[in-house]
Design a protein that fits this description.
With 377 residues, the chain is of the alpha+beta class. The strands form 7 sheets. The chain has a 6-stranded mixed β-sheet with strand order 2-11-8-9-5-4. A 4-stranded mixed β-sheet has the order 6-3-10-7, with no helix packed on it. Strand 4 and strand 5 form a beta hairpin. Helix 4 packs antiparallel against helix 8. The longest helix has 40 residues. The radius of gyration is 27 Å and the shape is elongated. The N and C termini lie close together (11 Å).
Length: 377
């Protein structure tokens, strides 16, 4: 392996300055910077150009074919790459670059190389401009890259493709899990078989702490990992020194539902048993009564459908929040305890499978990074 300038074996084709007032709804799609997303290239069929454009020989260089590698050359996403996978041709817009490689350089090799974090940082550092970063074709072509013989490039691409395909398969499986959960909730929530009941009627009343001179373990909104929906920490105080919102007594199996910015889903179930556990008045504390299982309440309030309803009920533009009454007055389905357990068990199985898949994705992404370092350092 030796190092060469990218431009020795690859040229960057810049895009055409299409005028937005000449875009049409049907025709050849135009690929703009915003179409380069997460390693792929999306197509907006409402942003097209007339087909006669490619009849002109001098415009042939602006044609995008399946398998072409594109790069954003301006803006916040400068340096981001995508593979065009559509079966039909598209057109290259200005400030989008296309890699035109000689037979000495594998296009997919370039994609993996320049997607690697080391080169992404290098591209961003090269980009200039005050209002927004920009990089030129000549700047890209001047980047020094590790060069392997063609057969070795092919082996590298095959190995990285296997990892990437495994990641894509698991992401598809995660999407299927999400679709299954949504389908299940839609069928259940829209069913006429079960009566609707006010959420508050499935909960016990929660008391505030009375002894002012006592040590407490305090949970506030920042204590919750909103991605995992878990309580990850609590803070120890003497109640006299604690924040004024430290008032609500909580126990194991209580559900804490943040009244602030419900779109963030700061929701968690208390999974541990500890004395003098107190939470902020910024939460609704949901303690299931004899009519409901804690896990059933948790699954209902963490669902996409419930979240969307709560978002629509928020007030305040800069600090959107809910009134506790809005939450407690929301209707959910009243079903028997055995049926609740059945629903919770099914959801738990799907969620556990989804968690395993997401962990696989993290492990595979780490493996991809290790391999990129091995070949491209």
């Amino acid at each position: 392996m030796n190092r060469v300038m990218l431009g020795m074996y690859c040229k960057i084709q810049g895009g055409f300055a299409f005028k937005s007032d000449q875009f049409i709804n049907n025709g050849i799609p135009i690929i703009r910077i915003g179409n380069i997303q997460n390693g792929s290239v999306t197509v907006d069929k409402d942003v097209c150009y007339h087909e006669e454009f490619i009849d002109n020989q001098k415009n042939k260089s602006f044609i995008i074919l399946k398998g072409d590698i594109l790069i954003a050359m301006s803006g916040a996403t400068v340096g981001k790459l995508g593979i065009y996978n559509a079966e039909y041709v598209a057109l290259l817009n200005q400030r989008v670059g296309k890699f035109v490689c000689s037979t000495k350089l594998n296009k997919k090799y370039i994609y993996y190389l320049l997607s690697y974090d080391l080169y992404q940082k290098q591209i961003f550092n090269i980009a200039t401009g005050c209002a927004q970063p920009n990089i030129s074709t000549s700047q890209l072509e001047s980047i020094m890259i590790p060069y392997y013989e063609s057969k070795d490039q092919e082996k590298i691409v095959q190995e990285l493709d296997k990892i990437n395909d495994a990641i894509a398969n698991r992401k598809n499986s995660v999407n299927l899990c999400n679709e299954l959960l949504e389908c299940m909730f839609d069928k259940f929530v829209n069913s006429n078989k079960y009566e609707n009941i006010r959420l508050g009627d499935l909960l016990e009343k929660v008391s505030n702490i009375k002894n002012q001179n006592t040590q407490i373990h305090y949970i506030d909104i920042s204590s919750i990992d909103k991605d995992k929906n878990e309580i990850v920490e609590y803070k120890d105080y003497n109640l006299l020194d604690a924040p004024s919102r430290a008032r609500q007594v909580v126990y194991k199996d209580d559900i804490l539902f943040s009244l602030v910015r419900p779109n963030l889903k700061n929701i968690a179930k208390v999974t541990f048993n500890i004395d003098n556990l107190i939470c902020s008045t910024g939460f609704v504390v949901m303690r299931a009564n004899a009519k409901a299982l804690p896990d059933y309440i948790y699954r209902m309030v963490i669902s996409k459908e419930f979240t969307e309803k709560m978002i629509n009920k928020t007030v305040g533009a800069t600090y959107p929040a809910l009134n506790i009454g809005e939450v407690l007055n929301e209707k959910i389905k009243l079903i028997s305890i055995p049926k609740q357990k059945e629903i919770v068990d099914i959801i738990t199985i799907i969620e556990n499978q989804k968690n395993l898949l997401e962990q696989d994705i993290k492990d595979l992404l780490q493996l991809l990074e290790i391999k990129q370092y091995e070949y491209f350092k």
